[in-house]
Write a structure and sequence with these properties.
Radius of gyration of chain A: 22 Å
Number of strands of chain A: 13
Strand content of chain B: under 5%
Oligomer: heterodimer
CATH superfamily of one domain in chain B: Glu-tRNAGln amidotransferase C subunit, N-terminal domain
Shape of chain A: globular
Number of strands of chain B: 0
Largest sheet of chain B: none
CATH topology of one domain in chain A: Amidase signature (AS) enzymes
Number of helices of chain B: 3
Radius of gyration of chain B: 22 Å
């Protein structure tokens, strides 16, 4: 189990060598033993085992089985699961049990996956280290004093520590790829519209996308196929056929033109990461790729554009938490400060509930977004950010006229120490400098393990492609995987 | 530009967030550094650039207006912090 992957396990389940219940028990035992990593915020063994037993009976009865039959999949706590605690790492939703399933969950259930608990995350997916979680930070299994990355840190840790073979996260500015990179696993952010967002608790609706974590590219392909596809319940989901990502995976892409952005390998990049990325470029050259330089002149504006667009959308999306329909309500909301004496009780109730329910980073982004959208500032800030967003997308369109994929580091640094950046929001925001533009442009990207630092921390390689090129991205990543063994490395955990 | 404490307090009211005097102080400092950082976007000439609301080329998506199942009342009310048998309860809106 400490070195298993999803496709091998599926073969053993299908051959009868193991049962779903045995597998689930093994993972539950390991998840409990590694509880100190704080990967899971809700994990009810009985809920897991009853699904596994149901799967085993279905298998014994010879009924047709889905593509993930009996495989445990951990779920980021931002995805609604009918009747199960779904708390977004926030006090605001401490006792929230959704009345319906997210479409990604419906599809996992239809594929006969075993839903294996809810994973830790930055509060409402706002953060790059899982330190803003109301449940405390997740810990990196390669060095437990270091961050797991974020916001989907728990989902990355759950796979990296072999507490589960597969998990789902969400990526709004790098929240799947960056923790995947820092924890030494594969993480994929699909094209905007590839996976339905229905039932994904919204942070920034024009950027959010659900994506898989796995130990290798094939496992990620398996999970992506299970959740991808059009959904009438999400008007931004795109009606295009879902390729059989797994079937084509072993065939190298017909065209392998790899783009490298010179500025991405310059100032601000950790030297050990730079050398790992330069090694990766050599691996592709040896595999017959044409490597050429491409320009993304506006990418340096990605982080500032994101920190207007995302907070603006967040300020609107999180207006729903007003202590009325669900979520936390303050018990005492009497006026406390001189400026509150003229505010109506209903408004004071909302203000007090939100003050108690949200953590500092969420408040900061709501404030920033409210400011960026407010009268007199919207043109200068929000609308200008949307125009820059167009320029960023135009850069990618031009680059993908010349190359099939763009190769870069996923993160400018390996996992940093817990607490190192919590008091400096801007320093934390720069963790996403290589990942954030893909969300603004709507394009897919993945991170695969490509090295370890001298101190034993994982390094991730990011590949970006044009919209709906997931199949090419996965095949291109597989070329690297076949030539290296980084994806087989596991942390030593007691 | 720099936001004053009063301006940040006004933003907090618009955002329906009660801030303690200490939070107001901290957020004013932090918001000002973030605003200073995002102001670099002003350097770019974006005349004739169309704003981009999201990356993928889809426009109005229509569907037939058909009656479907709704959430049963009890399920809709189940997470309410204050409720009675048929609705959500809030503090009085009118005196």
């Amino acid at each position: 189990m400490a070195s298993a992957n999803a496709i091998e396990l599926l073969a053993q389940l299908n051959s009868g060598a193991i049962t779903s219940e045995e597998l689930a028990r093994g993972y539950l035992e390991r998840a409990e033993r590694l509880g100190r990593l704080n990967a899971f915020v809700h994990l009810d063994p009985e809920v897991v085992l009853s699904q596994a037993r149901a799967l085993d009976s279905k298998r014994r009865a010879g009924q047709p089985l889905g593509a993930l039959a009996g495989l445990p999949v951990a779920i980021k706590d931002v995805l609604c699961v009918d009747g199960e605690l779904t708390t977004c790492g926030s006090r605001m939703l401490k006792n929230f049990r959704p009345p319906y399933d997210a479409t990604a969950i419906t599809r996992l259930k239809a594929a006969d996956a075993v839903l294996f608990g809810k994973t830790n995350m930055d509060e409402f997916a706002m953060g790059s280290s899982t330190e803003t979680s109301a449940y405390g930070p997740a810990r990196n299994p390669w060095n437990e004093e270091c961050i797991a990355g974020g916001s989907s840190g728990g989902s990355a840790v759950a796979v990296a520590a072999d507490c589960v073979p597969l998990s789902l996260g969400t990526d709004t500015g790098g929240s799947v790829r960056q923790p995947a990179s820092l924890c030494g696993v594969v993480g994929l952010k699909p094209t905007y519209g590839r996976v339905s967002r229905y039932g994904l608790i919204a942070y920034a609706s024009s950027l959010d996308q659900i994506g898989p974590f796995a130990h290798n590219v094939a496992d990620a392909a398996l999970l992506l196929k299970a959740v991808a596809g059009h959904d009438a319940l999400d008007a931004t989901s795109v009606n295009l056929p879902v390729p059989d990502y797994l079937a084509s995976l072993e065939t190298p892409p017909e065209s392998l033109r790899v783009g490298v952005v010179p500025e991405f390998l310059g100032a601000g990049l950790d030297p050990e990461i730079e050398s790992a990325i330069r090694e990766a470029i050599k691996v592709y050259e040896a595999a017959g790729a044409t490597v050429k330089e491409v320009a993304l002149p506006h990418s340096k504006y990605g982080v500032p554009a994101y920190y207007l667009v995302a907070p603006a959308e967040c300020s609107s999306n999180l207006a729903r938490y007003d202590g009325t329909i669900y979520g936390h309500r303050a018990e005492d909301f009497r006026p406390q400060y001189p400026n509150e004496k003229d505010i109506a009780p209903l408004v004071l109730m909302m203000m007090a509930s939100r003050a108690e329910g949200f953590g500092a980073e969420v408040k900061r982004r709501i404030m920033l977004g409210t400011f960026a959208l407010s009268a007199g500032y919207a043109d200068q800030f929000y609308n200008q950010a949307l125009k820059v967003r167009r320029l960023i997308k135009n850069d990618f369109d031009a680059a993908f006229g010349e190359v099939d994929v763009i190769l870069s580091p996923t993160s400018p640094t390996p996992a940093f120490r817990l607490g190192e950046k919590t008091s400096d929001p801007l320093a934390m925001y720069l963790s996403d400098i290589y990942t954030i533009t893909a969300n603004l442009a709507g394009i897919p990207g993945l991170s695969i393990p490509c090295g370890l630092t001298k101190s034993g921390l994982p390094i991730g390689l990011q590949l970006l492609g044009p919209a709906f090129s997931e199949e090419t991205l996965l095949r291109t990543a597989r070329v690297f995987e076949k030539a290296t063994d980084w994806h087989t490395k596991r942390p030593e955990l007691m | 530009m720099a936001l004053s404490i009063d301006e940040v307090a006004k933003v907090a009211l618009l955002a329906r967030l009660r801030l303690t005097p200490e939070e107001l102080q901290t957020f004013t400092g932090q918001l000002n550094s973030i605003v200073e950082f995002v102001e670099q976007l002003q350097q770019l000439d974006t005349t004739n650039v169309e704003p981009l609301a999201h990356g993928i080329d889809i426009h109005n998506v229509f569907r037939d207006d058909v009656l479907g199942p709704s959430l049963p009342r009890e399920k809709a009310l189940a997470n309410a912090p204050k409720r009675n048998s048929e609705g959500f309860l809030v503090p009085a809106v009118l005196d």
